Please model this.
Amino acid sequence: MIIAVASGKGGTGKTTLAVNLALSLNNVQLLDCDVEEPNAHIFLKPCIEKVQKVFIPVPEIDEKKCTYCGKCREVCAYNAFAVVPPQQNRKGSILVFTNLCHGCGACSFFCPHQAITEVNKEIGIIEAGYCGSIQFVHGKLNVGEAMAPPVIRKVKDYIDPNKTVIIDAPPGTSCPVVSSMKGSDFCLLVTEPTPFGLNDLVLAVEVVRKLKIPFGVVINRSDLGDNKTEEYCAKENISVLMRIPFQKKIAQAYARGISIVEKIPEYRNKFLQLFEDIKETKLK
Amino acid sequence: MKICITAQGDNLDADVDPRFGRCQYFIIVDTETLEFEAVSNPNIDSSGGAGIQSGQLIAKKQVSTILTGNVGPNAFSTLKAVGVEVITGVSGKIKDAIEKYKSNGFQTTKGPSVDSHFGTS
Model:
């Protein structure tokens, strides 16, 4: 079973949930898909055994063959080209903005003059290893790159269908989140009972409903803030699968890179119960 | 001489739009006769590369200069490639900006004034 841990709002406790669930279960993989700032490794301290580069194909222009016809700009869905046709006293020019390129290959396919070849551009790396019996994989997008989904897809290539797979998704509701969640059997939405937490939870619920993924909510720091999140879940018939109260002990451990189950071992049973509840909610 | 000004409306009484790539309208105006054309910007909702496309759009109109609030890095590279002079930091009414331009009240901008996606709402 593949469980994605997502949130909408950042800083609600996605990684805390993902890491503690992984530490409580057997035969498990943890895939940190927050490739813009992965942090699960801080808590799991895995032994990295394999490092792999991630490339996307980007266009390279042979200006000897280019006639500045503008076909590439026309077919590019991501606006990665600027083409300036030649004028009386100035030769034409073509600009490629590779940081907007998604590597779809349309430009080289449609170029009528075979002036475009695709060259590999490194956009990040994948690191894989183990933390005890937990198989650990995360991606790191290079600083300055904008295209997270190709790195996320490479992390997800490691999915082993014979294991329980826990995906730590990035915050928000945009492409990287959708790429991370897609294909999951269940989605845990972690939130906090604050107006910001609720606002972004509502957005995240819209996304998982659109993707038709069964889901449930975990309320972190559940004894702070207000009651509006509980009211919203009740109204929308959304299961609240776990409530983690605010505890100084948990926060202190977190600040030192220590998981909840390591600091408070009784919590292991709560995460095991959460896993059982996920299986039950999924069947509903 | 034809110049372009980014505008929030389709006439000379409108305010300057502080965004370049995602402005509401491009007002293409002849500074001598004040004859103008208002071009509705098709790139407002583009997910990325709005500045690049807007730069090419106004290049087709063969303007010498663009007056706007801010220009991002991709738009700036594009405008440089198409040979359009960039003036940023412009605000107020379109007609007042034209007058100020005619009396040499602006200085050319040498680089992008904001980061990518500045005008994304």
